[in-house]
Amino acid sequence: RRERQRFVDKNGRCNVQHGNLGGESSRYLSDLFTTLVDLKWRWNLLIFLLTYTVAWLVMASMWWGIAYLRGDLHRAHDDAYSPCVANVYNFPSAFLFFIETEATIGYGHRYITERCPEGIVLFLFQSLLGSIVDAFLIGCMFIKMSQPKKRAETLMFSRAAVVSQRDGKLCLMFRVGNLRNSHMVSAQIRCKLIKSRQTPEGEFLPLDQCELDVGFGTGADQLFLVSPLTICHEINSKSPFFCLSQRSLRSEQFEIVVILEGIVETTGMTCQARTSYTEDEVLWGHRFLPVMSLEDGFFRVDYSQFHATFEVPTPPYSVKE
Fold first, then answer.
1. Which is nearest to 176 in space by CA: 255, 94, 288, 278?
2. Do 288 and 175 contact (CB within 8 A), yes or no?
3. Could you tell me the fold of the domain covering 22-145?
4. Which pLDDT tens digit goes with each residue over 32-70?
5. pLDDT-derived band of residue 87, with 50, 70 and 90 as boundaries?
6. In 143-179, which positions are buried (b, 16+ CB within 10 angstroms) versus exposed (e)?
7. Is 22-145's fold the same as 148-309's?
8. 3 state DSSP class of 95
9. Where does the record place the site Role in the control of polyamine-mediated channel gating and in the blocking by intracellular magnesium (predicted)?
10. Domain chopping of the chain, boundaries
11. 73-102 burial, b for 16+ CB within 10 Å, e for fewer?
């Protein structure tokens, strides 16, 4: 079958784009900090470089303008004359003075004299503006670097989900694992069934979302994710798959979105990993191969068998049947 469009990719990226915002696009500017954090790295670096470059050139031009209006440029080498900023006689020297002041380097060759009130005011303005720009841009870069998105890449989901019997009940199952030794604190898993449907009143609901119970009532959705776990959804009368059989699975169109959330132990930040399974990725009558083995004093996880399944005898009928 031709691969159809997913709502959520296997890597967790949501295939949703917002368009025709009109006047609502101004909301992005009202929350400029979050907008910058959400941008891609290449745009963040470009804005970072351009902001500092423009700010440096503008402030250096202001220092050069003060020296030009006071006539300091023409009398810079006159020892009897007291300029606004000593040893500023062209734009490069004004730029160097600004950099020395902004970076608090203080070589001592260029300095503000007490007979220049406009220079003192500009110095105060430069200090305040520099602190604001540093706090905004450096804070933005720090938040972006500390985002736990890369941690989600070390949370693993099985490529396919399986349907088979467990404890005499027909269940939909998939597997999750953590590739790192550091744990996910308070890990919780949720599942959403995304399927278009029509209400009895004739209203068509595209991409309607329905909750799949993976142990919310029993606490099984709270995971101790030290080793790979098999998440189980019991198909019963309350399940959306109550009428699903092996034959009807071939003609169904649905998508199961899996959301795994937890707190990264090393950073204390909340991390979310997502994946999805379409009807073509649900294997009827299969079970996952074991990946745990007991070694000398520890348990070993073989991730080469993480996605592997094998066939087991499973009735081809739905729970309703």
1. 288
2. yes
3. Helix Hairpins (1.10.287)
4. 888 888 888 899 899 999 999 999 999 999 989 988 888
5. confident
6. ebeeebeebbeebbbbbbbbbbeeeeebbbbbbbbbe
7. no
8. helix
9. 134
10. 22-145, 148-309
11. beebeeeeeebbbbebbebebbbbbbebbb
**Phi/psi of residue 294, nearest 5 degrees:** -95, 120
**Domain covering 148-309 in this structure, CATH number:** 2.60.40.1400
Per-residue tokens: 306: 């993480």
Which two tokens mark 222?
């709270």
Confidence class for position 148, pLDDT limits 50, 70, 90: confident
Can you say whether the dihedral through the CA atoms of 127, 128, 132, 133 is positive or negative?
negative
Query: b/e per residue, 34-63, with b = 16+ CB within 10 A?
Result: eebbeeeeeebeeeeeeeeeebeeebbebb
Confidence (pLDDT) at 247: 92
3-state secondary structure 17-46: CCCCCHHHHHHHHHCHHHHHHHCCHHHHHH
CB 174 within 8 A of CB 157: yes
CA distances 237 to 19, 56, 86, 173, 318, Å, are 40, 68, 86, 17, 11
Q: Is 202 left (phi over 0), alpha (psi -120 to 50) or beta?
A: left
User: CA 160 to CA 173: how far, in whole Å?
Assistant: 9
Say whether 151 sits in a helix, a strand or coil. helix
Tracing tokens 């000593």 back to the chain, one arrives at: 86
Integer Cα distance of 234 and 222 in angstroms? 16
Classified as helix, coil or strand, 139 is helix
Count Cα neighbours of 116 within 13 Å in the Cβ-side half-sphere: 21
Q: Are 62 and 85 in contact (CB under 8 A)?
A: no
Round the average pLDDT of the chain to a whole number and report it.
87
Q: Hey, what are 69's tokens?
A: 């209006």
